[in-house]
Amino acid sequence: MTANVADPALIRGVALFAPVAFILVVCALRKPGERELAGAIPATAWNLLTLPAVNILALNLGWWEFHAQGAVLHGLPVDLLLGWALLWGALPALLVRWVPVPLLVASAALLDLGVMPFGEPVVVLSADWLAGEAVGIALCLVPGLLLARWTATGRRLPARVLLQIVLAGGLGLALPVLLTGVWRQPGWLISLFTQVLAVPMTLGLAAVREFAVAGQGTPLPYDPPVRLVTTGPYAYVRNPMQVSMTAGYLVLAPLDPIFLAAAGVAFAYGAGLAAWHEGERLAERFGREWHEYRRAVRAWIPRWRPSPATPAATVYVAWSCGQCGQIGHWIQRRRPVALTVAAAEDHPGDLVRMAYERSDGFTARGVAAWAHVLTHVNLGWAVLGWLIMTPGLAWFAQLCVDAFGGGPRRPPRTVARSRP
What we know:
The structure is a single chain. This protein is an alpha+beta fold and 420 residues long. The protein has three domains: 1-155, no CATH class; 179-304, Four Helix Bundle (Hemerythrin (Met), subunit A); 313-406, Glutaredoxin. Helices cover 60% and strands 6% of the residues. The protein is built from 15 helices and eight strands. A four-stranded mixed sheet has the order 6-5-7-8. It has a two-stranded antiparallel sheet with strand order 1-4. A hairpin with a 2-residue loop joins strand 2 (72-73) and strand 3 (76-77). Helix 2 (34-61) packs across helix 3, helix 7 (157-180) packs antiparallel against helix 8 (187-215) and helix 13 (367-374) runs antiparallel to helix 14. The longest helix has 29 residues, at 187-215. The protein is elongated. The termini are far apart.
């Protein structure tokens, strides 16, 4: 069923400004709090990232097509995408604390089903357009609303951090790479730049992970950690995420000069607005602790050795095991900062792997413990440690260690002579 043909300019204007008007009405009726804003931002960003992908898929599979001139990017009307992202992102996200997610999904889906047939001649639907609608709901609407819900209620920290990582990687890296076309370079060149790019990306991922693990929060301004994070990358540099983004763009700059401009923008934002805003909030929340940390760690130039102010930790090594004892001696020779090497034989618990325990309550075992030990040595070893901590990679590394004879073993309670 199709609607009567309407003025394309009117359709595009309504598609953009109607969601904006709805959002203003909701905000006027009840001013959103920080948690609602924290949920609305990533929900909208999620739809801005995924809706173009779904619409490109729709064009290729013939679910619908666009007939538009002006403000069109890769065949997609920009104003329609922006309005759609607000309608599926910010608007329901502002209501998600009071309205159940299934009801919001059903309402948004019904609204789309009723409105999309009236989009001609800008949007021309095929007989199979409902398939595209279902894909959009599953990949765009539902994950965005779940992210908004978890953020607004402070739940599911690992899930919302993972979705934020996908968002940052998609909007900050994958989308620019696709739009500039630098991926069309020869394979050997892409491989080389990917390997170099892995270093700043590892720094950024480790910083996000540390926010979640040590601080119990996320990089979002309205969803911050509850504790001042001074471990991991933050023991080396105060702004590891901004450093990661800026360095990543500089790596890509030889492929396209636009990334040099992006690096300048990222640096200006991080050194200007972000530093001022975040610095004020951190000073208010953590006071003396923040000022001491700020004096010890630079904002943009990483330290070679971690800050002595990093929380103290202990690594337990079984000195009665020959291979484990060698690892313990290797650690001691590197003079790790804020790390004590102790005998697993003296640990009050029942250890079967190397154990890392930090004064803030964080613990790790096996390969993960070894990775955290490396972050106490110097920046070079720390990058390797952060890489090992990558989800999935640590599990695979532990599997390999176990396969080659480094599996769990229980040390005796009597301390061996090899203990220093």
